[in-house]
Queue: 4 jobs
Job 1
Amino acid sequence: DTGVSQDPRHKITKRGQNVTFRCDPISEHNRLYWYRQTLGQGPEFLTYFQNEAQLEKSRLLSDRFSAERPKGSFSTLEIQRTEQGDSAMYLCASRPKGQGASSYEQYFGPGTRLTVT
Amino acid sequence: QQQVKQSPQSLIVQKGGISIINCAYENTAFDYFPWYQQFPGKGPALLIAIRPDVSEKKEGRFTISFNKSAKQFSLHIMDSQPGDSATYFCAASPFGGATNKLIFGTGTLLAVQP
C-alpha cells in the first residue's frame, strides 16, 4: 500500500490556461475527495465521489472546475481558464469501504501546488 | 460561515512540555472529530479521531478530550518533541452523513523548542 498519490506535485501556469491534476487513491478505497487549501488555512471541501459517481460538489467548485472518476479508481480535477485566485494546494483524500469507525478515516495525498501567474 | 473554530493560531512549547490545542464547533450534527498533522509541503496526516460517545481517547503521546455539552474538543500532546513541530488541524463531519466531508479549523502552528 503506497498511500494516496497525486500528480503533478507542482504546476505553474499562466492565467487563462487549462490545467489537469490526477489522484490515485489507496487501492480498494471506493470513496474519494478533493479539497483545496490556501496558505494559512485548513483544507476546504470541493467534491466527493463514491465509486464513479460524483455525489456532492461544493459551491466553491465553479463551472470552470470539473472532476471525474471514470472507472471508480483514479480521479482527475480540471480547471479551465485559470485565474490567479485559483493558486492553492489541491489535495485528494480517499476513504475505505464499509460502515465501521475506521471507514470514516480520510487519508490525504501530498497535494498538487498550483501557481497561476 | 466558519463551523469549526480553532485556537491558538500559534503555539511555542519547550521540549518535554504539553501542547494543548482547542477547537469548538457549532453544528450539532457533527459526530466525528479527527485531528491532522501537516508538515510544510506535505498533505495532512491523520493523527487521532474521536466520536462523542467517549470523553477521551489516547494514542501514544496524543490525547483527545471531548466535551459534548460545550461542543468543544482539544488535542493534548504529551512530552512534546521538536519533531512534533508542524501545523495541526482539527476537523469535524457528520458521522452518518452521505458524504462525510470534513470541515477543518484554521490550523495551529506548533513550534517545540529544544
Job 2
Amino acid sequence: QKEVEQDPGPLSVPEGAIVSLNCTYSNSAFQYFMWYRQYSRKGPELLMYTYSSGNKEDGRFTAQVDKSSKYISLFIRDSQPSDSATYLCAMSAGTALIFGKGTTLSVSS
Amino acid sequence: GAVVSQHPSRVICKSGTSVKIECRSLDFQATTMFWYRQFPKQSLMLMATSNEGSKATYEQGVEKDKFLINHASLTLSTLTVTSAHPEDSSFYICSARDVGQGIGEQYFGPGTRLTVT
C-alpha cells in the first residue's frame, strides 16, 4: 500500500459546480497536510496548509482533515475554468513531503 | 509573495553530457532547498534536501555521484546531472523554504524539463 493514495481522475465538472478532491494515507505519523495546484508544465503552488483535524477555509477553498480516518479533502466552491489544473495532496511527519499522484480537474464554461 | 526561479526552463542534451540546473529564491533567504523529479502523470518524488553550506541529504535510491547538488548561498542551489542518459529525462522541480517556516511552506520553482537524446 502506498503511503498516500489519490485518485488521478480526470474529473470534469461544469462551471459553478462544487468539487471534492480526496486523499487517503496510511502513515499515522503524518501531522502536516497540504494541497497544491499545478498547472501544466509549471511548478506546484501551495493552496492550503493545515496541521490539525477539522476544516480550514480560504475563499472558495476548504481543506478538511480527518486524522481518525486518515482522510483529507479539498472542496472548491463555485468552480471556475481557471481552476482547471492538477491538484496534489501532500503530507509530512515533519521532514520530507510525500505527494499523492495528483487529480486532474477540468472545469468547463 | 515568495518567488523561486529555475534556469533553464527546458534543456535538451546528448547522452553522456552533464547538465546544470539553477534554483534561486528571489525575495527570501532559503536555508533549505529541495529537489524533486516528476515523471508524466506521476507524483513529485523527493530526490534530495540541501541546507546552505552543508552537504545534501539524498533519498534512498538517488545516486549522489550522478545528481550533484550544491547549495553555496542562501539564494542559490544547483543540481548537476552528470553523464546524463535518456532515462534521466524528466521534469526537475526545486523548492525552497525560509528559516522558521513550516515543512509545508515550501515555494516551488517553475521546473526544468530535461530531455536526453
Job 3
Amino acid sequence: AQSVSQHNHHVILSEAASLELGCNYSYGGTVNLFWYVQYPGQHLQLLLKYFSGDPLVKGIKGFEAEFIKSKFSFNLRKPSVQWSDTAEYFCAVNAGGGFKTIFGAGTRLFVKA
Amino acid sequence: GAVVSQHPSRVICKSGTSVKIECRSLDFQATTMFWYRQFPKQSLMLMATSNEGSKATYEQGVEKDKFLINHASLTLSTLTVTSAHPEDSSFYICSARQTENTEAFFGQGTRLTVV
C-alpha cells in the first residue's frame, strides 16, 4: 500500500529564511504528487502538483518542489519565507488502484516576523 | 480552480442520531469523491473512496455501516454518520476529482460535534 512520510512535524523560521520540507512516498509505480497548504481556519488549497514532465515544479506564492524518482521524494522549497506562509503543509500522493489520494502527516510551519 | 462545496460547515447533534453531510462539485463532474476525517492537529485520514454509481470503497478500520456514503450523481456525494457518538466528533472533509489524472479539489469541511 502507498504511504507518505513527511519528515518535519514542526518548523519555525524567521522571515526571509529559506524553507525545505521533506516528503517521501512509497509506491513503485506511476504517481501524481501534490503539496497542499492549510492556513489557519481555512480549507486545503493546492500549492503545486506533479503529473509528468519537468521534475521541478513551480507553484503559487513562490513555492517549488522537485520530484526525484530515484529517491521517491518530492520536497517543497521556498527561497525566502514570509510571515504569511505560516500554515500547515501536506504532501499527498495519488497512486495505485483507484488512484486514491493519501496524505502525509503534515508539517506545521511558523514564520516569525 | 474548481469549486467543491460542503454542507453544513458545522453541525451539532445528539448522541444516537444520524447526520448527513453533502459534498457537491459545482462546476465540474466528479467521477470520484473522497471522504476524509481530520482529528485536531493531525493529518487527513482517508475514510472512503466513492465512484459515481457504485459502492464506496472503505479504508481498513472504517465501519461502512456507520459511515454511509452515497454517490448518486456526478456532482453529489453524501456521508451519513449513523447513530453518532461523541467519539465521532471530528472534522470531515470531502474532495472531488474529474478523472484519475486530475487533481482533487477540497470542500471547506464539516465540523461535527456529537453531544
Job 4
Amino acid sequence: GAVVSQHPSRVICKSGTSVKIECRSLDFQATTMFWYRQFPKQSLMLMATSNEGSKATYEQGVEKDKFLINHASLTLSTLTVTSAHPEDSSFYICSARDGQGPDTQYFGPGTRLTVL
Amino acid sequence: GNSVTQMEGPVTLSEEAFLTINCTYTATGYPSLFWYVQYPGEGLQLLLKATKADDKGSNKGFEATYRKETTSFHLEKGSVQVSDSAVYFCALSPARGDKIIFGKGTRLHILP
C-alpha cells in the first residue's frame, strides 16, 4: 500500500529555535497533504491543509506565522515550527491524499517534538 | 458543524470477548465514515470505511455499518485478540477528498 514517511521521528530542541518536519509520499503523488497535532491521550487536531503549489489553509486558532507549511512538490510537504516553546511540544502527524488513486488519506508515523 | 463522538476509554476485555465501540457523528450532507487504529508506537492506519448510508465496512474481523437514521458508525468484532490492543479512532470526512475529523479515540486493552 501507499507509504508516507516523516522525518525526523523525534526531535528535541531548545526554546526559541525553529524545527522543520518533513512529510513525504514515497510511492504516489500527493496533491493534498494534511498536518495534525496530537496531544497525549487525545485525538488528532487538524492544523492545516496543504495543496501543492499554493498556500496552506489553516484551521481556526492555528497561527500560520508560527507553523509554516510548504508543499513545494507532489511528494513533499514541510512543517516548520518557528521560535518553538515548551507548549509546542506534541506529536505532529501528516497525511497525504493520493489524488489519482482511491482518494484515501495515508498517514505518516508522526514526529515527536519536545521543546526544552 | 461536523463532529464525532465516541465512547470514552479505556475499554478492557478478555480475549475472545465481543467488542463494541460506539461512535456517533454530526455532519451536514453525506459524509464518509472511517475507523482508524493506532497500535502502540505506530502511526495511524485505516481499519475500515463506509461512504454511504447502509454500507458496511469490514477488515480483520472488525465491522461497522453506516447508519444514517441514528447517525452512528459503531465498531464491532466478534472475538477480540490480544493483538487488537490499540487506540481506535472514529472519523468522518465531510466530502470526498476533504479533511478528516477525528473523535477522541478509545483505548482498548485485551487481556490474555
